[in-house]
Every structure is written in structure tokens, then in C-alpha cells.
Amino acid sequence: MVREFDFLIIGSGVAGMSYALKVARANKGKIAILCKTTIEEANTAKAQGGIASVTNLLVDDFRKHIHDTMVAGDFISDLEAVEQVVRHAPAQIEELVKWGVNFDRNEDGKFDLHKEGGHSEFRILHHADDTGAEIQRGLIEAVRSNPNIEILENHFAVEIITQHHLGVRVTRRTPDKECYGAYVLNPDTQKIDTYLAKVTVMSTGGTGAVYKTTTNPDIATGDGIAMVYRAKGMVKDMEFVQFHPTALYNPKETHPAYLITEAMRGYGGILRLPDGEEFMQKYDERLSLAPRDIVARAIDKEMKIHGLDHVCLDVTHKDPEETKHHFPNIYQKCLSIGIDITKDYIPVVPCAHYMCGGIKVNLNAETTIRRLYAIGECSCTGLHGGNRLASNSLIEAVVYADAAAKHSLEVIDQYDFNTKVPEWNDEGTLSNEEKVLIAQDEKEVEQIMSTYVGIVRSDLRLHRAWERLDLLYEETEHLFKRVKATKDICELRNMINVGYLITRQALERKESRGLHYTIDYEKHALDQAHDSHIPDSFRKNY
Predict the structure, then answer these.
(1) Which end of the chain is more exposed for a tag (fewer CB within 10 A), N or C?
(2) Are 17 and 139 a contacting pair, CB within 8 Å?
(3) Interior CA angle at 207 toward 205 and 209, to 5°?
(4) Three-class SS state of 140
(5) How far apart are CA 208 and CA 214, in angstroms?
(6) φ, ψ for residue 61 (rounded to 5)?
(7) Do 172 and 232 touch, CB atoms closer than 8 A?
(8) Do residues 455 and 500 make contact, with C-beta atoms less than 8 angstroms apart?
(9) How far is CA 244 from the centre of its chain?
(10) Can you list the alpha helix ranges (DSSP code H) found in 165-310?
(11) Rounded Cα gap, residues 486 and 470, in angstroms
(12) Are the C-beta atoms of 210 and 225 separated by less than 8 Å?
């Protein structure tokens, strides 16, 4: 079956839905949102802490937010991207509110702002401790009520379509690569349909599921990044995997692990060893409010020193009723496993949380493939650099969705549907034995990445990961060519691709920087004067 849409959006988080709502206003054609599972399931819904924006102009300003973002990113961040996000953030917050998203307010009606690690001011808008879920709820209602947007749930994008599918040899250096849509697995027929599009938008979320323990849902298998890489698009900064310092330690829950929001440390939570001893003073003067990469490494080191499987977060010194008011969901979640956070320490452990790299895009969210945009966590805008500043992800998604919408609306009239695209070859079968192998290989990818490409790395570990992933790649590609395409084998291919990219780009970075910390270059990194990292443009203006 062949379907045609002017705007084809792959992914249904805050990025994809806000883009859909923005282009729908222009009334320039048919819009489809492809959801891998249901529209409710996305990384957006798992975001607890909030969304960062300068709103309290009495104490805060754009320069401070820009400075905090650059410092957290270890000055690898693209200053133009940082300025774009920070300066456009307030307008996008206003738009979210118009779409029905509710942020907590004080008695005077102003936003109730939190402070999180790496931020110099209170600038985090939130909705209790489930901000992402509230944003997702508001956008879902707006999208569902818009007659110009078709929502296709349980539709899995297998590959994006380029000249390659027309028999043209395409390499990473081919100058005029174009995207004509995507091949999509139909949940009703289990066949691959052809979706032709004038403009295609990747908003497929992150990559956390390639690790054994992650705050991401199972669907976060890096599909968009893998598809664009296979289509010879540019992928950048994949070595910068952010491990959230404080996931709830509960061995029964690993995919996803329950997140203990950064805002709890902003609220006054203190990191301690199980015996009550504080330890962050050994690592950073900002203590428990240091940026995530520093805190995660500190926890990882303390766990290894003391032979622990977790450390603790302490809010028992705070007013119990205030704690329950600010963190109702965390309070109930911990209570369900026998922990009263007003009286007991919360056991926490770092786990895979956010991909700072991804599909390389410019300020308009254009990829290196024409007619293809990437927004949200799957993209690499340059905002995050070596480490994402807390609560910058949701605002990046809506700011770049706005940029992509404006640009694609300007150029869409230049494009047409490419009706020469061939249909997918649907031959092959898949036996139960092969299904077992796929499930086992997924577990092996998770184990390889967690063991060898985690918070602390070395060349030896990275090479070992590369060799094992290469073997899995060869086996899986051989299997993929002779069986019928299913969601499971496609996800496995994507996980292997993403694992390979993280590993390769980690090997290519010959320094410890930001989230990429390697024992082989630890001394080298410490010997460098930190000022040498700072771009002249930042030094001059900030």
C-alpha cells in the first residue's frame, strides 16, 4: 500500500506533536504522526523535573542561562544553538500554555520555579513531579482535536526512503541526498507500506534501551538515529550519553528505572552513603547540585570504593508535608516499595538517561539529507555539547520544532511526491527459533553497552565492545536479509547501530570531556588548562 502525506512525522513526543500543531495552522496539506506504540508512550512523559526558561526577569536573564548551559556542556556546545534555544524559550512556554499545558504557579499567579543542578537561578517550570506527563497530556489533547492531523498508532518506521531505493549509489559524501518518506510496518497486515512525503521529520526520541538499566521506556532503541545513519546522514556526539545520577535503586525495575528528579536535589536533597556520610564535597564545590556528569561519576566511584550497589538521597531534614506536596508521585512510588521519603533515605543509582548527540542538524533543524528534519532527543543541535544542563531537553524540543516548522513551511511548495519509489520486498518468514535469538541478542547488546561503554570507559573496554557488536551486526544483517521484517528484528538492528556509533565516537575522542570519561585520557584531561576549552566568542560576550 502507498500513502501520501505532505508532512510525515515519525515520533510522538513533545517535539513531534508541537511540530504537527505548528504546521497544521498553515493548512498546507496532510499531516501524519507515526507512533511506534501509542501516542502516550514517549520519553517526554517520563520527564519529571521540568522545562527551563528565563521567566523571572527580576533575578534571571538570558546571559545567565546561556552561561550555565555552556559551562555544563564543557564548552563543546554550539553557542549559536544555545542562544537560539535560550532566547526563544519564553515564547515557546507561552505557546505550551495556550495548548493547555498547566505549570504550577504561586499564590500570586506567577510560575513556581525550581532550581536544578548546574543552574545559577530558579528557572525550572514544572507540574508537581510529573512535568513531562503534563506536557504530553496537553499536547495529545491539542493534537487529537486538530482535524488536520492523522495519528497512526503502532506504526513502526523501518527505513527512510532516499535515492538509494531508486538504484542510485549514495554515500556520506553524496551532496544532494533527499528523503522521500519512509517504509512503515502496518500493524494490521504486518506488511511494509510505502509512505511518501514532501517533508519528513524525525522525532523518535533517545537511545536508553541499549543499556541494561535506563530511565527510558523500552521503545527508546534509537530508531531515528539508526535509520538516518544507514541512509548516510551525519550523526554526531554519540559518545555523550548522560547517565542520570539518581534513579531509584530497585533491581525489579530496570526498563524503565524510576527516576528521582533533579529537582529533589534542587529542593535540598543531600547525597549520602548508606551510613549517612556525605561525599560530594570531595568532588565539587556545588556538592549535590553539581552537573549530572560530575555527580554520576562521583556516585559511581563511591559505589566502587565501598562495594555498594547504591548510594542514598536524603530529604528527611525537610518539612514532610512540603516534601509530599512537591513530590507526590515520588512519595507514593517509594512508599509502594516500603520507603517513606520523609523518614527514610532514598536508595539511588546512576543509569542511562539521555543522548546528547544524535542526527546532526542546523539552526533550522535540517539534517544533512534534504527534505528531512530531526528534532528532540534524536537530534544533535549542538545545545548540549558534552553534557546536557538539567531541564534543557524539553525546551530544546519545542524551540527546534518551531524552527523546523517555519523552515519547512517556507520550502514545501518546492517539493513533490516521488512516485518512482518501489514497494518494499516483503519476502521471507521468521521462525520461533529466530525470535528467541533476537531476544537473546537484545540482552547481549544491553550487557555489552553497560559493561564496556558506561559512565567510566577505557580503550580496552571500548575495543572489546566494538568487536562484540561487530559480530552481532554481521549475524543480524544476515538474518534480516532472509526473514520477513518485524518490529523486533528492526529494533535489534537499530540497537546494534546505535551501540556501534556510541562506541566508535567514544574511541575517536582522545580526551576525557563532559560525559565521556576514560581512564586512558584522565591525566591528559586534568593537565589541560580549563580556559583552553572556552571558545573566543563566549569569552568575548559572556
Answers:
(1) N
(2) yes
(3) 115
(4) helix
(5) 6
(6) -155, 170
(7) yes
(8) no
(9) 12
(10) 223-230, 263-266, 292-306
(11) 22
(12) no
Q: Tell me the C-alpha to C-alpha distance, in Å, between residue 122 and each of 50, 505, 524.
A: 12, 35, 35
Cell triple for residue 302? 563511591
Nearest to 207 by CA among 226, 228, 222, 191: 222
Among candidate residues 14, 224, 260, the one with its CA nearest the CA of residue 130: 260
In this structure, what are the phi and psi dihedrals at residue 161, rounded to the nearest 5 degrees?
-100, 130
Q: Per-residue pLDDT tens for 382-437?
A: 999 999 998 999 999 999 999 999 999 999 999 999 999 999 987 777 776 788 88
Q: What is the largest CA-CA distance in the chain?
A: 67
Distance CA 473, CA 315 (A): 46
Q: Answer for the pair 197, 8: CB distance below 8 angstroms, yes or no.
A: yes
Residue 459 reports pLDDT greater than 70: yes
Report the C-alpha gap between 263 and 292 in whole angstroms. 12
- Mean pLDDT value of segment 34-42: 86
Known catalytic residues? Answer: 292
Residue 173: how many CB atoms within 10 A of its CB?
Answer: 7
Q: Which amino acid is at 181?
A: G
Q: How far, in Å, CA of 377 to CA of 255, rounded? A: 18
Radius of gyration of the chain (CA): 23
Query: Which residues lie below 8 Å from residue 139, measured CB to CB, with a gap of 6+?
Result: 14, 17, 18, 21, 96, 99, 101
State the number of CA atoms in the 13 A half-sphere of 440 facing the CB: 9
